[in-house]
Amino acid sequence: MDSLQKLEAHSVYILREAYRSFKSLCMLWSIGKDSTVLLWLARKAFFSHVPIPLVHIDTHFKIPEMITYRDALARQWHLNMIYGENTAAIDAKQTFPDGNIERLQCCKFLKSEALRHTLSGEWPRYRLNHTSGNYEPDTNREPYTGVIVGVRADEEGSRSKERYFSPRDKYSEWNIGDQPPEFWNQFKTDFAPGTHVRIHPLLDWTELNIWEYIEREKIPMTSLYYDQGDGRRYRSLGCYPCTTPVASTARTPADIIKELKTGKFANIAERAGRAQDKEDAGGLETLRREGYM
Amino acid sequence: MKRQHMTVVIVGHVDHGKSTVIGRLLADTGSLPEGKLEQVKATCARNAKPFEYAFLLDALKDERSQGITIDTARCFFTTAKREYIILDAPGHIEFLKNMVTGASRAETAILVIDAKQGIQENSRRHGMVVSMIGVKRIIVLVNKMDLVHFDADAFERVKAEYGRFLHEIDVQPIAFIPVSAFYGENLIAASAKMPWYKGRPLLEELDTLTVKEQPVNLPFRLPVHDIYKFTENNDDRRIIAGTIETGKIKAGDAVTFYPSGKKSHVKSIEEFNAPARRTAQSGESVGFTLTDELYLKPGEIMALAADLPPQTSVRFKANIFWVGHAPLVEDKTYKLKLGTAQVPVKLVAIVRILDARDLSSTASQKSVNRHDVATCILETTRPIAYDLAQDIETLSRFVIVDHFEITGGGIIIEALSEGASTLHDHVSAREKQWVSGPVSAAERTLAYGHKGKFIVITGSDAAQNSTIARLLEKELFRHACKAYYLNMANLNSGLGAESGEVPDTAEEEIRLLGELGRVLTDAGQILITDLNRHDAYDIEKLKALLQPFEVFIIQAGPHTTDARLTITSTETPTEAVARICRLLKDDAILMDYNL
Ligand SMILES: Nc1nc2c(ncn2[C@@H]2O[C@H](COP(=O)(O)OP(=O)(O)O)[C@@H](O)[C@H]2O)c(=O)[nH]1
């Protein structure tokens, strides 16, 4: 087995362990390359099926192609697709693009809080009705006790301390100082009422691994990752007011792999195009501890 | 080209230089983000603090405030040969569990010992745990050679002493390397300061190691992770999913599941988005369909019928390390997770506790405390399948869960016979102490017109079992028998309600039912209940608990235990009940005049 096959097998194992251990389980799908690879790995784990609901947090500022792509795949792969949002903040224009709050505060409102309340079931969840093609309020308001997330350890500092199965308390707090042990393939699958567990099947993958896998498996990605002729492409996807493309003429996964291997981005952080990462060194970590991915 | 990677864990006593080794490796292989090193150095200079490589690794605020590495961070670096993932493990005693977390994913361990301070408690403890966790390749760095003037004798002294210790715990180190991590001596390139050292520098030593191959030559073992039947899009496959631990298999092979002993043949190997294939081997997470529709539970081990079978027992001897805040004690039920199996487990006895200070054993201790390494005897409440560490190591590994937390881990080194299980001990002790009232069983039989009996109706069809059980109660009662139907739900919400957090409810149910059944049979009652989610082993246990009485088992449906009576699907409940009553008469449980 080569490295990619090993990574795949391990991720599949983690997904199956999660599916077996958590009655109320969901998977976050940001529409980006990592969580889309994760979705593909779920199809591997469950033999083409995806028996886990996919949750997307819609900030209303996502690049429009992302939403189109999300719904197209959801239909094609029969996904149990759910989205949540911070309606109050959006309606009250309490956002950075509206010019009313700081950037990180905006991330907190539109992502962290929307996520936390969507997962807990306190705020409405909208579910894709495959017959009508519309999103309708979901009747299931059960809190999700297991949440599968596509973070990678190589992305940035704070994520490199994660566990495959990482418990959060009632307030989605992450206690970095006291993480459960993980021996061999045994993870924390027992949890006290009121707590939930974040599950990270992609922890050992690198950006290069992700693209090599996309290439090998021919996983459909949103075109935003590829140069459409103007010499620019996105390396990391987010909200359009806070995400800038990188200069690149890569048009296919193979081009991107070549680009990554030549070390073009060797010294530039993958999320460098994501403005919120630059605000302050500990900002992202604070956000993360509050539940942002 | 196949790219390889190798995972390395760095362990050792606090302050012996682990972070410095990592920082220096990252810096000298050009694996740091541009300007990072300079930036950290500048920050140190600004704050008039001496520069430390540890600062470089301190990505987290939390960690900075504590001043010690508290978790298994991952760093990546690449050499011409391969990609390395370094797991930084902490040296502080409080954080053994994180070290183990790191070590359990590593293929190679680098153990750092301060040349000046010499071997400390955690130098030994980490060496021991790392080897127990399964890292057999250990490189020992004798660090801070600059502090002992790069003296060969100082190096040889540490090497001799630690070498002796490793020998005692049966570990052959790959190399001892004298280094000065802070100054980069003998890490990337051979050191000019230590010409007397003829071995390789660290990086070269790492690069010469071969990545562990997947163990395909061992017997085939697949811990059954789950059984899937997703019906969407008319998918009618029933797939046994799992990750192959060892060996290889092909479609058509005869397989046996352990501990149930069920047998079948592999019909197909299943995978999504991959060309159809007939074989699969260790490391792969695949799926299988079988030629028979077996009722299987996750946790069984699938093996080739032709191969050496795994061990199955309830009792075994294991080496364990404990990281729980509360000690591991006898008379408490924990949860054991081995492969994909999860069963309740108890500590039966402590054989010895290894004291990291001098490796002497203390058998007098009654509990295994936090950070102890011990040899123990454990017993599960039902048989589990496993292999011994010396045979197939990965299938000898287990963890113990105490109150939602993983608190220990270990490897099984010996299977013990079931003869002296705690259940049998319990029953014989109970019977020895049993105090009977003045009314004898014979007097009761005469008065009631029947003997006491515990009747269990079992089978996979819950509705059918319950219909028969209820009808039987009515029929016997109509004939003036002291018959009583007990629904399991009543037992759980009543007697069982106070049991609190029980690792396995099925297990606890059987215990309650067995104890209650024994009392009521003695009281001359005919107690009827129906069981449907319990297996042959549960029934065996119930039988044991009911001693000195016998359980009257009625099996509905195809699965056969050693039932007194089997009810076929064509029989009506009335017919079934009539047959049961006839049999009760034949067995002289009901007196003739009664029916
Ligand atoms: N003189 C000298 N000091 C060293 C060397 N390696 C590490 N140190 C120092 O030893 C201290 C502890 O090192 P560190 O890497 O933080 O130890 P850890 O706790 O094992 O990670 C720090 O002050 C280092 O600068 C070395 O080779 N020579």
Explained architecture:
- The complex is a heterodimer of chains A (293) and B (595).
- Chain A is built from eight helices and ten strands.
- Chain A is of the alpha/beta class and 293 residues long.
- An eight-stranded mixed sheet of chain A has the order 5-4-3-2-1-6-8-7. In chain A, strands 9-10 form a two-stranded antiparallel ribbon.
- In chain A, helix 1 packs across helix 2.
- Chain B is α/β, with parallel strands linked by helices.
- Chain B has four domains: 205 residues, Rossmann fold (3-Layer(aba) Sandwich), CATH 3.40.50.300; 83 residues, Beta Barrel (Elongation Factor Tu (Ef-tu), domain 3), CATH 2.40.30.10; 109 residues, Beta Barrel (Elongation Factor Tu (Ef-tu), domain 3); 154 residues, 3-Layer(aba) Sandwich (Rossmann fold).
- Chain B is 28% helix and 28% strand.
- In chain B, the strands form five sheets. Chain B has a six-stranded mixed sheet, sandwiched between helices.
- Chain B is elongated, with a radius of gyration of 31 Å.
- At the A-B interface, helix 1 and helix 2 of A face helix 4, strand 2, helix 5, strand 7 and strand 8 of B.
- The site of guanosine-5'-diphosphate (GDP) has 20 residues of chain B, from helix 1 and helix 3.
Key structural traits:
heterodimer; A: 293 residues; Rossmann fold; 8-stranded mixed beta sheet; 8 helices; 32% helix; B: 595 residues; alpha/beta; Elongation Factor Tu (Ef-tu), domain 3; 6-stranded antiparallel barrel; 15 helices; elongated
SSE layout and pairing:
The complex is a heterodimer of chains A (293) and B (595).
Chain A (H helix, E strand, L loop, with lengths): L2 H19 L3 E4 L4 H13 L8 E4 L6 H13 L4 E4 L2 H5 L11 H18 L5 E3 L6 E3 L8 E3 L16 E4 L27 E4 L7 H11 L14 E2 L12 E2 L5 H9 L21 H7 L4
Parallel strand pairs in A: 1-2, 1-6, 2-3, 6-8
Antiparallel strand pairs in A: 3-4, 4-5, 7-8, 9-10
Helix pairs in contact in A: 1-2, 5-8, 6-7
Chain B lengths: L4 E8 L5 H11 L7 H11 L6 H5 L3 H6 L6 E6 L4 E6 L7 H8 L4 E7 L6 H13 L3 E7 L8 H17 L6 E4 L23 H7 L12 E8 L10 E5 L4 E3 L3 E5 L4 E8 L8 E3 L3 E6 L10 E4 L6 E12 L11 E5 L2 E14 L18 E14 L10 E6 L2 E12 L5 H12 L7 H8 L4 E6 L3 H17 L4 E4 L1 H6 L11 H18 L3 E6 L4 H11 L4 E6 L8 E3 L5 H14 L9
Parallel strand pairs in B: 1-3, 1-4, 4-5, 5-6, 21-23, 21-24, 22-23, 24-25
Antiparallel strand pairs in B: 2-3, 7-8, 7-14, 8-13, 9-12, 10-11, 10-14, 11-13, 15-18, 15-20, 16-17, 16-19, 17-18, 19-20
Helix pairs in contact in B: 5-6, 11-15, 13-14
The complex binds guanosine-5'-diphosphate.
